[in-house]
């Protein structure tokens, strides 16, 4: 990166870090490893230390990275959530230990060592033993209010056991929401099957699962919570961190494995070695060790510097990196025509796993890292899972290999490749691209869509390549005789497949809607569309306003649905499906026909039954519950001590009912 003035380099680093923050926190789709990110941040810190006049309040060095998603309300923590300073090697760890001992004038009474969990930090507020709010760390002062989603996590106690002496009246329990490795692999496997993008690592899958506007989706994800710290606590019932951890264990919280109190600096170094060795055997993704001073009085004396306490440090494990060569860069075409560059690598072992390809994400990434075929590159398995290409080693480049160019025509069908305005991705514009078609048909037949048993990826490819299937409707015209002619298919399997295809003709409408592969329409949206429109014909005629009037459907989604049904080719396809005898059945929830069916509710104040119970009852009767009140709300259900929402309801002329009236409505719905 040639010579740059410090001001230019600082500006560049800030820009890059801001973009990485956005990708990491908002999109849950990072394109650099944590170690890469740390290197950039460190370089920026160095430059700012040399040029204090160039430090600005909004520099990424001055505040933790997470911008808030607007869709969630904000919640301010009673005490700020600090971040941890890093030690990058054993020497820096030793410096931290000595600095702390010096600060205290003596070694602390104990150190606590803990694994650094790679998840999403959250703050849980308990009042009189009840969970009243959950929020992400956000910028440290306030984060996103994720109470509804946190309530779905089984390892977050909704109520603390009452032990009058110990349970504080108000306390903030901090910890990490994570997805275990096994659960993560299973989740990705099922997403792959559904044709959904897979998560890069357990942390991203946890963050993505938590950031759902529909708590039902969060509830279906295998999220777990581990407590690792105390925020505000009234009255102050704990004197040490280890006492706190012990007590919260009794309250029903999980505490990470390998947590322990030790006496000497030497013990701390040893604990690090032990943790690094135990790492692979754990079901949790851990990326380092955290060392904390145990005593709260000692912590108080040490204080903090900028946004990190002086009483704790994070010592991250060395990234698992390896060098290998890029043999080829291929353009791979997905279901919706997105073309992703993928590096085919000389197979290499990294941290016990053989890696032979890595997604290069998009052209911007390839340019930024200047990656070319034949380059020797450093790859890294960050967060234990999907490998990144960290960098190309310039000194090892032989000759002047050409830059990778995105093909101008689709490698599968030859149609033009286009880049839509404002998108990083390139797409195949082909209307009958075999690669897209295969992905589309595979999605159509998948378990969560039309569930056609036996029609997997390989068979779909054979059917498409042999010209037997040009669209979904063709599936329903296949007969055993034709199939027997196809590679390796015996009479029995041919008959089974025909039967499986036949059985899919009457799948519920929501599955058919989901199977069509309309952009942005996943299972949940498909279900609400089925519930609202009851037939494909009615959905096809839906106006944008009718769609956006539904909960959870915004203008972009509505436009995507409209565009799908406006397309001539798609209309023909739907007619073909009908002609081929595809006649979806009604969804079981679609026909309650009661007073609650299709209505949107907002709950406020305290109800006599738990809110989740009320939500379940409403959902079972075909209604939806939304967290904020708008013109689309049909009823505001006001419990005891209802607040500002009442005013809002009056302004928007939304009908306000009490709990008894809700129960009466539910009754007419047969719930
Ligand atoms: S203690 C000042 N303990 O690391 C104390 N944090 O940079 C800060 N983390 O946002 C938190 N494992 O998400 C603590 N055992 C652990 C941790 C841990 C992971 C995360 C946490 C926090 C970040 C701090």
What percentage of the residues does DSSP assign to strands (E)? 15-25%
Number of helices: 25
Radius of gyration: 28 Å
Tell me what the CATH architecture of the largest domain is.
Answer: 2-Layer Sandwich
CATH superfamily of the largest domain, called what? DNA ligase/mRNA capping enzyme
Supply the number of structural domains. 6
What distance separates the N and C termini? 66 Å
Bound molecules: 2-(butylsulfanyl)adenosine
What does the average pLDDT come to? 87
Coarse shape: globular
CATH class of the largest domain: Alpha Beta
What is shown here, in short?
By secondary structure, the chain is of the alpha+beta class.
Write structural notes for this entry.
The chain is an alpha+beta fold and 671 residues long. It has six domains: 6-62, Helix Hairpins (Orthogonal Bundle); 74-316, D-amino Acid Aminotransferase, Chain A, domain 1, CATH 3.30.470; 321-396, Nucleic acid-binding proteins (OB fold (Dihydrolipoamide Acetyltransferase, E2P), Beta Barrel), CATH 2.40.50; 434-506, Orthogonal Bundle (DNA polymerase, domain 1); 509-588, 5' to 3' exonuclease, C-terminal subdomain (DNA polymerase, domain 1, Orthogonal Bundle), CATH 1.10.150.20; 592-668, 3-Layer(aba) Sandwich (Rossmann fold). Helices cover 37% and strands 21% of the residues. The chain contains 25 helices and 24 strands. The strands form six sheets. Strands 14, 15, 16, 17, 18, 19 and 20 form a seven-stranded antiparallel sheet that branches. A five-stranded mixed sheet has the order 2-13-10-3-9. A four-stranded antiparallel sheet has the order 5-4-7-8. Strand 15 and strand 16 form a beta hairpin. The longest helix is centred in the first third of the chain and has 21 residues, at 6-26. The protein is globular and about 85 Å long. The termini are far apart. The model has no long low-confidence stretch (mean pLDDT 87).
């Amino acid at each position: 990166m040639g010579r740059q003035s410090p001001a230019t380099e600082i500006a560049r680093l800030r820009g890059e870090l801001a973009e990485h923050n956005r990708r990491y926190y908002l999109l849950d789709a990072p394109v650099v490893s944590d170690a890469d990110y740390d290197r950039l941040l460190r370089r920026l810190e160095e430059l700012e230390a040399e040029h204090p006049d160039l430090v600005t309040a909004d520099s990424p060095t001055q505040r933790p990275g997470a911008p808030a998603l607007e869709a969630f309300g904000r919640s301010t923590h009673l005490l700020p959530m600090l971040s941890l300073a890093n030690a990058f090697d054993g020497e820096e760890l030793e410096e931290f230990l000595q600095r702390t001992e010096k600060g205290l004038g003596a070694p602390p009474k104990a150190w606590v060592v803990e694994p650094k969990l790679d998840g999403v930090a959250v703050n849980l507020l308990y009042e009189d033993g009840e969970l009243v709010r959950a929020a992400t760390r956000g910028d440290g002062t306030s984060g996103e209010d994720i109470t509804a989603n946190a309530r779905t996590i089984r390892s977050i106690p909704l109520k603390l056991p009452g032990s009058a002496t110990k349970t504080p009246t108000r306390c903030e329990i901090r910890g990490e929401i994570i997805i275990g490795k096994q659960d993560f692999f299973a989740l990705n496997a099922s997403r792959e099957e559904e044709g959904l993008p897979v998560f890069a690592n357990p942390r991203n899958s946890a963050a993505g699962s938590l950031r759902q506007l529909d708590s039902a989706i969060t509830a279906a994800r295998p999220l777990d919570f581990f407590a690792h710290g105390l925020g505000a606590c009234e009255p102050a019932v704990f004197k040490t961190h280890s006492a706190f951890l012990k007590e919260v264990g009794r309250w029903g919280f999980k505490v990470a494995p390998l947590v322990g109190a030790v006496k000497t600096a030497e013990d701390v170094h040893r604990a690090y070695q032990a943790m690094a060795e135990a790492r692979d055997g754990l079901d949790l993704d851990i990326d380092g060790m955290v060392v904390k001073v145990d005593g709260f009085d000692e912590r108080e004396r040490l204080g903090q510097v900028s946004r990190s306490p002086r009483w704790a440090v994070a010592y991250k494990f060395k990234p698992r990196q390896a060098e290998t060569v890029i043999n080829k860069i291929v353009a791979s075409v997905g279901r919706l025509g997105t073309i992703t560059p993928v590096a085919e690598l000389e197979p290499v072992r990294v941290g016990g796993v053989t890696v032979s390809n890595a997604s290069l994400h998009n052209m911007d990434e390839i340019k930024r890292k200047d990656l070319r075929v034949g380059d020797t590159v450093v790859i890294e398995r960050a967060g234990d899972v999907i490998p990144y290409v960290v960098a190309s080693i310039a000194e090892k480049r032989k000759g002047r290999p050409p830059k990778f160019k995105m093909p101008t025509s689709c490698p599968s069908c030859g149609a033009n490749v286009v880049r839509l305005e404002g998108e990083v991705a390139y797409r195949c514009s082909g209307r009958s691209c075999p690669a897209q078609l295969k992905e589309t048909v595979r999605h159509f037949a998948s378990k969560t869509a039309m569930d056609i048993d036996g029609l997997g990826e390989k068979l779909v490819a054979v059917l498409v390549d042999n010209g037997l299937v040009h669209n979904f409707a063709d599936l329903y015209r296949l007969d055993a005789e034709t199939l027997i002619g196809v590679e390796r298919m015996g009479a029995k399997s041919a008959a089974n497949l025909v039967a499986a295809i036949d059985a899919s003709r009457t799948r519920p409408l929501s599955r058919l809607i989901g199977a069509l592969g309309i952009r942005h329409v996943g299972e949940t949206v498909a279900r609400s569309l089925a519930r609202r429109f009851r037939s494909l014909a009615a959905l096809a005629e839906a106006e944008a306003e009718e769609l956006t009037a539904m909960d959870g459907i915004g203008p972009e989604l509505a436009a995507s649905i409209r565009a799908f049904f406006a397309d001539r080719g798609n209309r023909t396809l739907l007619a073909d499906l009908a002609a081929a005898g595809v006649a979806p059945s009604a969804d079981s929830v679609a026909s309650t026909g009661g007073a609650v069916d299709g209505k949107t509710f907002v709950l406020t104040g305290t109800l006599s039954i738990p809110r989740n119970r009320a939500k379940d009852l409403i959902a079972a009767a075909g209604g939806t519950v939304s967290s904020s009140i708008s013109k689309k709300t049909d009823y505001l259900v006001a419990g005891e001590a209802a607040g500002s929402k009442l005013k809002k309801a009056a302004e928007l002329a939304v009908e306000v009912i009490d709990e008894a009236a809700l129960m009466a409505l539910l009754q007419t719905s047969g719930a």
